[in-house]
Amino acid sequence: MPEDHDEVLKRPDNEEPDEGDVPASVTFMALMRHAAAKAESQQAAAPPPRPVRPAAPATLPEAKPATPPPPAAASQPTTPPRTPRQPAPPPSEPQWDDAMEAQRIRRVKRRQARRRQRTVGVLGGIIRSVIVMLVAAGLMATIFTWATPTQFLNTGVRAELSIAQATNQVAMGTSFPTLAPTRQPTPNWLRRVGIVSGHRGPQVPPDPGAVCPDGLTEAEINFAVSQKVVRNLRAVGYSVDLLDEFDLRLENYQAAALVSIHVNTCKDFGERVSGYLIARAAARSGNSIDDLLVNCIAQYYSLATGLERRDGVTIDMTDYHSFREISPLTPASIIELGFLLADRDVLTGKQDEMAQGISSGIICFLEPGNLPPTPVVAGTPSPAASPSPQAGS
């Protein structure tokens, strides 16, 4: 059996034959022809068999006179007998072995080349997959960034970020930051702010709010501080609406924020009752975006005025009528700047500081990174030392 036949038997059943190799059937037919040619050559070299004489019959028939054969023409040429066609000699054993060895080497080289191609194909597929994943991740991140609204972060998270920035950037006791005007105003509804001047506007009968014995009214302090807040916000590019108490524009009013400014009562409680109150609508869900607005204003207002934030807000604040009129998408709060009796000096002598604190709180809410946040320096008095007065509004 030739040497290549053993290689064929050793090849796994699931391995396909290499392109250009001699199929097994062709090899088998070549072996059969080689054997047949060898047998014919051996038969031709052997002596012919001796003919067997037949046995004589028991009785011989009567012999007939033989007819002499016709004389052969002397000029007719004689045709020599045809010799059988001899097959081509089979290749010698050394030639056959060299051909099979060369074929085996070609087959091994083709297998090695296919293995290298498979390895390169696998590595290329992995690299292509990684590139596609990176490109897809970049596109998704870009689309997510474009489609994410500005109020995407939870209000609690934004509040904590503001406090963290305040702790890291501003030391305790630093001067109050001033607002720098922007290069170009952006008057659109996302930058629109509503400021309600409490008890202002045509009303029948007129409602000045809380009134002190000497004639000082809540309405005039509210209007003075509201005008300064509007001036500060417009200076940094916001479109600000100065609204009356019962302004018709409050119906479904939509803006980035709305703050209603009021002052607390001038009533004598028998002891000094000082501080400011700030609240959001009670109808808004807990930990809402309104809480972030309240916390930002309280943070800056306390630092600007030195007043303490009090507990005990009244239903007049949490159920303020403007909260029910404006759009549900508008964050809103109401602030009582202080008490007309105990905080009279601050309410009449530090109106610029009060307006600055409210303006900075609104900017802290709208753009946490635009204004350096500052820590809250106001404390909360105990309930025993802080009665719950009724709001003057």
Characterization of the model:
- By secondary structure, this protein is α/β, with parallel strands linked by helices.
- 42% of the residues lie in helices and 8% in strands.
- It has helices at residues 3-10, 24-45, 93-147, 155-169, 218-235, 289-305, 315-318, 321-325, 344-349, 351-366; strands spanning 192-197, 239-243, 257-264, 277-279, 332-339.
- It has a 5-stranded mixed β-sheet with strand order 2-1-3-5-4.
Give the total of beta strands.
5
The dominant shape is rod-shaped
CATH topology tier name of the largest domain? Aminopeptidase
Gyration radius over CA: 55 Å
* Biggest sheet details: 5 strands, mixed
Instruction: State the share of residues found in helices, binned by percent.
Output: 40-55%
What CATH architecture of the largest domain would you give?
3-Layer(aba) Sandwich
Strand order of the largest sheet: 2-1-3-5-4
Mean pLDDT across every amino acid position: 76
Helix count, per DSSP? 10
| Count of spatially separate domains | 2
Uncertain residue ranges: 1-5, 169-179, 181-188, 372-393
